[in-house]
Design goal:
Elements (H helix, E strand, L loop, with lengths): L1 E9 L4 H19 L4 E9 L2 E9 L6 H12 L12 E7 L3 H8 L2 H4 L14 E8 L8 H19 L5 E14 L2 E14 L5 H15 L10 E4 L9 H4 L2 E2 L4 H4 L20 H19 L4 E8 L8 E5 L8 H11 L4 H8 L28 H5 L3
Parallel strand pairs: 3-4, 7-8
Antiparallel strand pairs: 1-6, 2-3, 2-9, 5-10, 6-7, 10-11
Length: 385
């Protein structure tokens, strides 16, 4: 049965992504000095101003405004009302609420005499999801992988001078046609790229079509594949000057492109005591190793927490009928093989290191170099087959 599935991505100059990058850039600069810091930093960008807000508890002293201006410049906003040297920046940062800190500093189990791994309580309630499948080499869904690749190519073409008329803002979208669960072809490609006023729409469409053709797998493109390039016409006003931006508004872009459920918690701007981030990373790590081990060809994992409590309140597995064992058995294996307490997650994945700025654009998952993408539990899981 033919099915269509679509995912989107955005470039690093998209206003929401710019806010994510500033938030994560601040977290990294603080962690370089104080790796035990607590951070929950959010940004709002609109036209000619940026607001940096949230809670930070640390002995580190960093220049929030300088960090933000440097990131805005790196992203390419050297022009217009949001230029790095013109934008008005307001900082509204205060310490983490003592009511929250009390539960994080010492979990319910720790108060009752638990071990070292029980030291930290979850920084909030909520449910986090992980996912992996065999559609791509990185064990990610194909539509989001292709959308990210195309968005990254837009930025690279601007930065390298291949297409010097491009500006930082941009969006991509890829629709893949499936036969049951097997990707068969690329059905539709959408590209919206910000550009200078000195390029014609004819030239723009020609260049971006060529970029798409060379960036996407040619075996999946055929004569019926549809391409929509800047379908509204010109796209000269972009970034925060054209549309407001907010940290944490691209949570589906950040994860699996809509393929699996999402608990609703954003990642950027948060330190690892926030299970919205750390438990989602751990869930991805678990799912990737489960699929790579052969226990399932596809898996969605939900982990849920209560604020101030170390151990998760629930672990749920769905292998969509692809598991070599029952979903309940695989859930039991996960509980046995992986420690899902926040302190253990942070230690296992080395999440007190300043690695977050580089996660802000082009997806938190499916990219090499991150601890949660390692396949170091495969042999441990194979013994259950």
């Amino acid at each position: 049965m033919k099915k269509l599935f679509t995912s989107e991505s955005v470039t690093e100059g998209h206003p929401d992504k710019l806010c994510d990058t500033v938030s994560d850039g601040i977290v990294d600069e603080i962690l370089k000095i104080d790796n035990m810091a607590r951070c929950a930093v959010e940004c709002c960008a609109a036209y000619d101003r940026l607001i940096i807000m949230g809670e930070v508890t640390t002995f580190a002293v960093v220049d929030y405004e300088k960090i933000a201006r440097n990131i805005i410049k790196e992203t390419g906003y050297t022009f217009g009302s949001f230029a790095y040297d013109k934008v008005k920046i307001t900082v509204a940062i205060h310490r983490q609420s003592p009511d929250i800190a009390m539960g994080v500093d010492s979990s319910l189990e720790n108060k009752e005499g638990g071990d070292t791994e029980d030291l930290l309580g979850a920084g909030d309630q909520g449910m986090m999801f992980g996912y992996a499948c065999r559609e791509t080499e990185e064990l990610m869904p194909l539509p989001i992988s292709l959308s990210h690749k195309l968005a990254k190519c837009l930025s690279d073409a601007r930065k390298t001078g291949l297409l010097p008329y491009l500006r930082p803002d941009g969006k991509t979208q890829v629709t893949v046609e499936y036969d049951k669960k097997t990707p068969k072809r690329i059905h539709t490609v959408v590209i919206s790229a910000q550009h200078d006023d000195n390029v014609s729409q004819t030239q723009l469409k020609k260049d971006l079509y060529k970029l798409a053709i060379t960036s996407l797998p040619t075996q999946l493109i055929d004569k019926d594949t549809k391409f929509f390039i800047n379908p509204t016409g010109k796209f000269e006003i972009g970034g925060p000057e054209g549309d407001s931006g907010l940290t944490g508004r691209k949570i589906i872009v950040d994860t699996y492109g809509g393929r699996c459920a999402h608990g609703g918690g954003a990642f950027s701007g948060k330190d690892a005591t926030k299970v919205d981030r750390s438990a989602a990373y751990m869930a991805r790590y678990i799912c990737k190793n489960v699929v790579a081990s052969g226990l399932a060809d596809e898996i969605e994992l939900q982990v849920a927490y209560a604020i101030g409590v170390s151990r998760p309140v629930s672990v749920f597995v769905d292998t969509f009928g692809t598991g070599k064992l029952s979903d309940g058995e695989i859930a039991d294996i996960i509980i046995k093989e992986f420690d899902l307490r926040p302190y253990a997650i942070i230690r296992k994945l080395n999440l007190r290191n300043p690695v977050y700025k580089q996660t802000a654009s082009y997806g938190h998952f499916g990219r090499s170099g991150f601890s949660w993408e390692r396949l170091d539990k495969v042999e441990d899981l194979k013994k259950y087959l």
